[in-house]
Amino acid sequence: MSKVVRLGDPSDHGGQMVSASGKLRVNGINECIDGDIHSCPMLGHGDTAVTGTAKLTDRGKNVVHVGDTAGCGAVITQGSINLD
Fold first, then answer.
1. How would you write the pLDDT of the chain (84 residues) with one tens digit per residue?
2. Which of these, 41, 37, 61, 58, lies nearest to 49 by C-alpha position?
3. CATH code at 36?
């Protein structure tokens, strides 16, 4: 299973996930799903939605995994495989 992205997990742009609407908890932290927000510190990027892949769904929305991208092009680089 690939690593699931959670609230606070970082990206390669130096930003992080700032919302996590999923019902599942991964190592005690809510998971991120399609439409959750990544905050990017790069000039002109700002806050953009992340698109998850269809490896796993939560209430009909794709769960975000390590390697998925935010609207600014940032790649999410950290997550966990330990579902609570």
1. 789 999 999 999 999 999 999 999 999 999 999 999 999 999 999 999 999 988 899 999 999 999 999 999 999 999 999 877
2. 37
3. 2.60.200.60
